[in-house]
Design goal:
Blueprint lengths: L10 H4 L3 H4 L4 E2 L2 E2 H5 L20 H12 L25 H9 L2 H8 L5 H8 L9 H16 L8 H25 L3 E2 L2 E2 L1 H5 L1 H22 L2 H21 L6 H29 L5 H28 L2 H4 L5 H4 L5 H7 L4 H20 L6 H15 L3
Antiparallel strand pairs: 1-2, 3-4
Helix pairs in contact: 5-8, 6-9, 8-9, 8-13, 8-19, 9-11, 9-13, 11-12, 12-13, 13-14, 14-18, 17-18, 18-19
């Protein structure tokens, strides 16, 4: 059964839905067309755009062909990617494929967080109980292996690549601990939050300690470029949190603000972690860009779906209270679309589908491998998840 894409790059010329999406057409002086071509920088402000209705698949496809026709990477990409999606039967389950590389993930994290003070150790180990989905490390190890295969390198992951997968989970978890304090949350991953059990002060200190341990592990990789790339994640997390505290009056600026915040708070970690593992095995900036753009687009799609689930899923599914963002007065995709007198949930899902299509376009530029195809399959899982 083919993945359930109903639109391709031609959606911009004939879909009635695009009228509702034209408010997101140009950010930071870059046209929507250039953003869809993937011509943004790999350092990534996270600013995103959608195609205006005048963009035609042929011209977009030609720009892709021109940019990637030489040494990249895999048979020349075609403008309509929905026809090149693999069938489910041919695609490996991403979690199963990454499992071998993640078997010791939480044990390794606990070693990094080893302290003699029992209470701090208990707090730090609280979410690293092996019951998490390890979504971000899973993407990182699949991207690492996809880039290794593209670079004709077989065998185990490089030690630095394995460390980056671990570091990504540590940074993510530390950010959750801090978020729960800021939001006053009492549930996370089906458990009482750290701030509810140990109090806000100790929760903040524990989050800081996890971040410091991640920074030390990052320094041991010994690659200055990788350190710089992953250091950007922490800055983005803080900036994104501050952005969440504010809003914009203008309708177009509100959506730009929302997507930029979404990149910084969610997608930056995935994008920069993917870029970091590609740097360790390949010196080609275009490969780094592919890895970054895949992570960025999947990360934004993941958060868009998360924002939908905040409205549509019950608390038992989510493992945390539902409608949290709405109660906090945060304007997410469904709310912003609803303000345009449109179907907020449907439009947000449609926008998430767009980002997944772009993620597929990017990763398809690498040479075929089981891990590359698993990353394609992952986009379907992002769109269809219910928790």
């Amino acid at each position: 059964m083919a993945l359930p894409w109903r639109h391709c790059w031609r959606w911009a010329t004939g879909s009635t839905r695009t009228n509702l999406l034209e408010t997101i057409c140009s950010f930071n002086g870059s046209s929507a067309t250039s953003l869809l071509r993937g011509t943004g920088t790999a350092t990534g402000s996270g600013n995103e755009g959608l195609s205006s209705r005048t963009v035609h698949a042929t011209s977009l496809g030609n720009s892709i062909l021109t940019r990637h026709k030489s040494k990249l990477l895999y048979p020349t990409p075609k403008p309509c990617y929905c026809k090149r999606i693999h069938s489910d039967a041919k695609l490996k389950d991403p979690f199963t494929l990454a499992q071998k590389d993640l078997n010791h993930l939480y044990d390794d994290i606990k070693k990094e967080l080893f302290v003699s003070k029992s209470e701090l150790k208990s707090i730090c180990d609280y979410y690293f109980d092996g019951k998490g989905k390890a979504f971000r490390p899973m993407i990182v190890v699949l991207m690492a292996r996809a880039c290794n295969s593209h670079s004709n390198r077989d065998g185990d992951l490089l030690p630095g690549q394995r460390s980056i997968a671990m570091i990504s989970e540590m940074i993510h978890t530390a950010s959750l601990v801090h978020d729960d304090v800021i939001d006053g949350s009492d549930k996370r991953r089906g458990k009482t939050t750290i701030n509810e059990v140990w109090g806000e002060r100790k929760a903040i200190l524990a989050g800081d300690f996890i971040l410091s341990a991640a920074s030390m592990a990052l320094a041991r990789i010994g690659n200055n470029t990788v350190v710089s790339v992953l250091s950007q994640v922490t800055e983005d997390l803080v900036r994104g949190e501050f952005m969440q505290l504010g809003s914009k009056e203008n309708e177009k600026e509100r959506f730009k603000h929302y997507l930029d915040k979404t990149f910084k708070k969610t997608a930056s970690l995935i994008a920069n972690s993917c870029k970091a593992v590609s740097i360790l095995v390949n010196s080609d900036p275009e490969v780094h860009e592919i890895a970054f753009q895949y992570g960025r687009n999947v990360g934004i799609a993941f958060q868009l779906v998360d924002d939908v689930l905040d409205f549509t899923a019950c608390a038992s599914q989510l493992g945390k209270p539902s409608a949290t963002d709405l109660k906090l007065g945060l304007a997410t995709g469904p709310v912003l679309f609803a303000c345009q007198q449109s179907e907020g949930v449907d439009q947000t899902n449609y926008l998430a589908q767009h980002y997944c299509q772009e993620a597929i376009r990017q990763i398809s530029l690498l040479r075929p491998s089981l891990e590359r195809d698993a990353l394609i399959r992952l986009t379907q899982m992002v769109l269809t998840r219910d928790k």
